[in-house]
Structures
1.
Amino acid sequence: MTNPALLRQVADWIADDPDAGDAAQLQALLTAAQAGDQSALAELGDRFAGPLAFGTAGLRGPLRAGPNGMNTAVVRRAAAGLAAQLTASGHAGGIVVIGYDGRHGSRSFAEDSAAILAAAGFDARLLPRLLPTPVLAFAVNHFGAVAGVMVTASHNPPQDNGYKVYAGDGAQIVPPMDAEIEAAIRAVESVRAIRLASGYQVLDESVVDAYVAAVAKLVRPDSPRELDVVHTALHGVGAPVVRAVFAAAGFGAPSEVGEQAEPDPDFSTVSFPNPEEPGAMDLALALAGREQADLIIANDPDADRCAVGVRFPAVGDRPAGWRMLRGDELGVLLADWLLRSGVRGTYATTIVSSSMLSAMAARQGMGFAETLTGFKWISRAAPDLVYGYEEALGYAVAPRLVRDKDGISAALLVAELAASLKADGSSIPHRLAELAASYGLHATSQLSWRVTDLAVITEAMSRLRTAPPGQLLGRPVEVTDLAPEADVLILRFAGGRVVVRPSGTEPKCKAYLELVIPVPDGETATDAEGLLAVVGSAERRAEAELAQLGAEIARAAGMA
């Protein structure tokens, strides 16, 4: 059984597709579907189910022909739509900076975008080579641009690519700009009719040099620099800029995980190029063990996120060993370092991150803001924002410099923190224990349910809305529903909370768990070993309760 309307839509798309390879790919599926091949018909149905929608500040999806994928036709429509929206909003002729990472298709998508924007009368400027997303975000403000485009799928699987758009303030776009661009894209009648011009500028290395110099100045000139660091770029584009920043700041060159140092669009050593995914950090952990390093730093492929690993000492029945820090742990460590360095202003995080930052800001007399998930909101949390983070390894340690998460400046500041603690005879694990003793142990965890059918996520959210659990961990629950503003449920109970939401970038449903457990004897511990033992006891209690909490929320969501 065929679908005549779908087949006509496919044929029309093929006739207008400027990429011969994509057109041939669709033609092969169309021919098979016309001959009765139901799998080909289903594949076309998926590819033409609808256009990619602007989600987290732009487009993201699988590399494949058709409107529901990342390909030349879709990218050209996006660039033309962006040009039309900018013109309509009074920015005609302004500067637009375009960057790209090392994924399949990224460079050609970026060059097409620059050519289309140039043809539309804009001063289009293409970054000189494969570069991290933070360099593009920096360049928007550096050049006084009206917009920026970064072609990247960040930490998504190898088969994906994406198109991230920045507004003229250097932050990721938010409503209504995203909806206006999407409407302008829909108004494009023919891809083949979109004009391209060669009059765009390919920038030189001076923009990279300016970023490196600015980031290097974030650390104090008199702070310690003695530190042995292992770094992995996870097959992304971050390694050269990380090395340059560390050198400019006076740190020794990190030891690179050689197998992952160069850009590789197939991400050959990892299942998912995401530091949070199981196995992604195995090579870095092994190298750190061999070299007896002080610190592991990992960036995701476009280097806007930062993960950190440290060696924890033996405590009780737990042996010494390396562990990657949770996003919230690094988030409060960086905030603590900035607070102790006298950085004044508003500190911000999201509704799914640890509540410890709120307590820290209040005690220090600083402003605090809590936003929906995503740096497009964090970066606009307050006019005097000096720090923002989200638990998904995103940190803005200098939002006036880069108005987005920046895994490279975060890496430099955590190196400064670690080196300073080392010089004082302390360590990151010990500082975490001191914070727990002072503010209570804020234990966080996350459940992530990856699905193939998005209807499963819809059903889970519906179950929690219509029949939320009356108790969690035996404590009465108060439910806050953020719909229609956001598809988010918050379940609060004495000493803890659970936040449940669909992922904005992947087919996942996520539950964020937090428990706040007092450490009554922490501040009276007489030495570092005693403090670690007291906090370790609270951590063991938290682990057991988080596991129980996770099981309870999974059952309530129908995901057990």
2.
Amino acid sequence: MGDISARQTTNQRLDSWKEIAAFLGRDERTVRRWEKERGLPVYRVPGGKGRIYSYTDELTTWLAGPQNSGVISPSSDTDAQPEAGRTGARLTVIDGRNLDGRGPDNCSAIAIEDPSFADPCSAEPSLRHTAAHPRWRTAVLVMAPIFAVAILTLATLYRSPGLDSIAVLPFTNAGGDANTDYLSDGITESLIDSLAHVPELRVRSRSSVFRYKGKDVDVQKMGNDLGVSALVSGRVVPRGDTIEVSAELTDVRDNTVIWGQHYSIKSSEIISLQQRMAGDIADKLRSKLSLAEKQQVTRQGTQNPDAYDLYLKGRYAWNKRTRPDLETAISYLNEAIAKDPSYALAYSVLADAYSVLPNYAASPSENFPKSNAAARKALELDPTLAHPHAVLGVNETQYDWDFAGGEAEFKKALELDPSDASAHQWYAESLDRIGGRQQEALAEINRARQLDPQSPVITRELGGILTTAGQYDQAIAICQKLVADDPTFEIAHDCLAKAYWAKHMYPQVVEEFKIEGRLSGIPEEVGFADALDQGFRSAGWKGALTKAIAYREAQRIKAGDYFSAEEIAVMYADLGDKDQAFRWLNIAYQEHDWLLIGLKTFIPFAPLRSDPRFAELAHKIGLPD
């Protein structure tokens, strides 16, 4: 990691045309022209309304480039003369150093810049005194108290920013190659995971921040929307076997950049980069971290760069949440594990991937046991991990129907990491579906929202819990707001469809299922919505159910496809055909259908609950009375 260390001690960020011009010894008009004509390395802050920045290392390298040979020098460029009327002094202190990289000693902590005046930190002692220049002596005496206050203010900010919440915005892939998106996303997610270990710091989840990916939104507005006091943003530029990463930490309260750094590494050093970035940001947030706390923040799951690269690709595919992408994720994660069999985090994400596959027409009996095995292997390798316990909580509740065991896993996850918003969400979802504990479910989902108030997934789950509790209008209002914020958020439309169904608002039910089908990109879901729509147009809601049932039953016959028998039973129950409803519920029981835990709470099953067969099935599943 020699390259990174070198950058840390010499490289500085310049945050205006004026600072860049001063560093190069030219006026602003010249450096602006150099950017356009000669490729001067200058960057724009996303959403920064014209704010620019550059790095001294890159400027130095650019100056030495062949394009500037014999061209850029004070004697060869007429624009090198100082701007008319440029007088006075300017404080140039960045992160405790002035722009030439010298430390904050008596000489270099303040750099008084004027082309007519010699460097105050020159090696010649005689040039350091202002006695021979009465006008400068007066200016210095007048400005010194102001400089002192400014330095003390900056030092206070850097020592103790008082930041209690943070969001890591999706790093920009500035290389222009979509195939390296996994790298910028992976760096973002790894920083989120690492900073979550900083004491007394709330870190927004991936689902909260990734809705801003690719959007040019004002930084301060994003911070206010996310309800945080600080933002981390950055850009990644892969170049062959090297990676350039720029990152900055912004205090949202006054929109000031309190830290910025540029890293240049070999691709094989990506793990060390992650450790260094997390440590650097943590140092700015909490200057007095203990050694154990610092180690927890900078800890990475593997030291094998190939395994880490495969892990990032696996997480990237997993986050796309389609069946082909989930299967791709599983393949990458298994390759990562083959490279490093002790890679606990790879097993943890593998457990996630297998656990959600049944949502995408994959067999529960094949995938839940694989998920359990991966989660338990992750905990065997690293007992401090909280997330695999939460995955086991979901699996044992929904598939194994071990409700006491599942609850114990959720409690273990929250004991290890009380601030895991997803664990609170999943626990709430399980309590809600089982039934009888709706108040506890509401308390858990509200805790999840307190921890991550902008997460659309958590908010959608609140809508589902309110529907179960019979608060349909509130559920509809919440999920309508989600759709207004992001019309492409697929599961918000599912939330609306279920709430409208409970209120017998059937035209709206059909419309929401149609939108959800289109957004899913899954042909079978589009076909189901079309069948529902055609049946509704010809024979109302009963016609819609009849047509949709026929479509789902035909899908079940197809080789290689799995579709929930419970979903067919729901439609038969709402249609009033109890015998067919129980026939399909018994098939669901034989298949260990994970949706059966909602037998007592899914609203269309209400007509079945007085039938003795219902109580018998609930008892066989083990649902609490």
3.
Amino acid sequence: MMLKHSSFSFVLAGLFAAASLSTASFADDIKLKNGETITGTIVYESDDLVKIEVAVSASIKETKLLSRADIAEIIKEAPDNVEFAKLEKMLPTASLLPASAYKSMITTGPDAFLSAFPDSAHAPKVKEIKATLEEELDKVERGFIKLEAEWISPQQKEEFKALTASKVRLLSMKRAAAGGNYNSLIGAMREFETLEERYYGSPAFAESIEVALNVIPSLGGQLQKVSRDVEYRNAEFERNRETLDEVGKAQIDAARAREQAQIDAAIDADKKNGIKWITLNGRSKDAVDSYINLAVTELERIKQLDAALLKTQAEQLVEVDKMIAEGQLAAAKTKLTEAAALSGKSVSKSRSSKSKSGPSSYIAALNLKLNDRLAAEAEKEKAAAEAAASQSLAQNLKKSGEGEEDGEGAEGEGETEGEGTEEDAEKSEKASTTDAFNALSGVKKEEKEDAEDKPKSQSSSSSKDKEERPRPVSVDDDEGGFSLGMLVPILTGVLVIVVVLLKVLGIGGKKEKEE
């Protein structure tokens, strides 16, 4: 009976060595009647036939078809051994796996195994595999990414953007190169093109040179075969087309036209974006031959690159990146200039401003990053200076305010004095008016001033003192006399009467003029 294998929803990449070791450790044995034993994995069984897959080498497997009439005994590996061999292939995990992939692996792998074989001798090891997968899942959910054996935190991704992006590009290039067909090899060279244009000077670019030198010869060999076969394949298409009726011809022509339109659109987009390794039109011999020429030219050019020198430069530039992150800006600026000069470049010639596709090289990205940090430091210093100036001004204003408060007190006193002066002026004016009236009344100013200068207590003396003052001389009533105080009013009255009489009688200056 054929063994049932649990299905896995996610296929992991880059685990060939582990797979080969696991196959050697856990396998099925088929003993033949001639005494030969075949070790491998039984992949198919029927009543009269058995298929077994045998490992010839680490990467090559051969399938043998055996008749049950020739088989003496079949010794199958225990089911838990077979499943455990599959679980071992999960570690180490591939790079850049999303959280959903980890969850699927845990469910269909360790959880399924422990559910099916709870008493297996492999259970402790399976639990360790599960713990490792859960630990990595936790990291991914917290924003970490795995690049081969390296885990990069969210903070590192933000701080070292260009360096991280270049590593991702290199990984994509390696994965595309592993595809083997000419389309995937072209994809690998497109990644190399991006690395050279945007991450020149990075460790990833230095490493990608070796990958490119392996990819291009393989690509060239496949393209030569395509060039030889393209005319034959086009002719074969036409022969098959002729065997169809009109409806069939219309359908196949429409499908062919749609495919060609998609290819043409992709080529136009690549040319518009300045891509060197454009989409290949495999139906055109001219297009294929042009691609072969491109491969030859690029191979010779890339061979001229000094990979060792670029690797040394990359190491120094990574140090510059770290210096910038640590705030050693002056030292980073000096080292960046020195590192850039290794490849004949200068920082000033590197495009440091951002474009739609980003900086033109790792050198330019570091120069831009350094300038941004220097500008930020300058802004901080400016802000600190402005804050210090503001604080100093506030202190000066505070001191000035305290002085003004003292001045206001003095001014208040002055105002009080001024107010007193105004009051004195009013008193003086009143006094002048009173003096004038008293003068008309015949009262002497000296007597008035003496009266005002006397203390209040003296002015309010008793009636006894008033009676003791000398009385003015007067004529006794019995004697027919009058007081001196009546003299002025009497004389005034007499004078008025005389004036009136003179005017009535016409005696005066005015009458004399008329005469």
